[in-house]
């Protein structure tokens, strides 16, 4: 083979997520992440919403699934969203508490023992594991997984 299809490092363009209830998920992601609806369809059998920030697409929600996300099967582990500082993590944590989100660790935790980065770990209404983190400011927070990455074991 030998040939490479991409000559520069790719970046994530957006993430597509299947959901069971589009309206519920749009409300959740808007409140939790401060996203805006960029485009949407309410056509029966083809409902979707494109969510982003400042006109940049980040998440596409597709209403085409049933049940809860099976975290025990191969596939998506979690989605992580970086915010500029711990104050933004705390604001997100408060919004998530008001939404009644399920937290996978109690409050803000470090990414590992001695790490400055950290955040909150939670699930969306369909059980998809999510993380909102800052690159610093969690030095005084617990590390639930010890030296192993917190974001890998929740």
From TrEMBL:
Question: InterPro entries annotated for this entry?
Answer: Fosfomycin_Res_Enzymes (IPR051332), Glyas_Bleomycin-R_OHBP_Dase (IPR029068), Glyas_Fos-R_dOase_dom (IPR004360), Glyoxalase_1_CS (IPR018146), VOC_core (IPR037523)
Write out the GO MF terms: dioxygenase activity; lactoylglutathione lyase activity; metal ion binding
Q: Which residue ranges does the record assign to the VOC domain? A: 11-135
Entry keywords, A to Z: Dioxygenase, Lyase, Metal-binding, Oxidoreductase
What is the recorded name of this protein?
Answer: Catechol 2,3-dioxygenase-like lactoylglutathione lyase family enzyme
Give the originating organism. Answer: Thermomonospora cellulosilytica
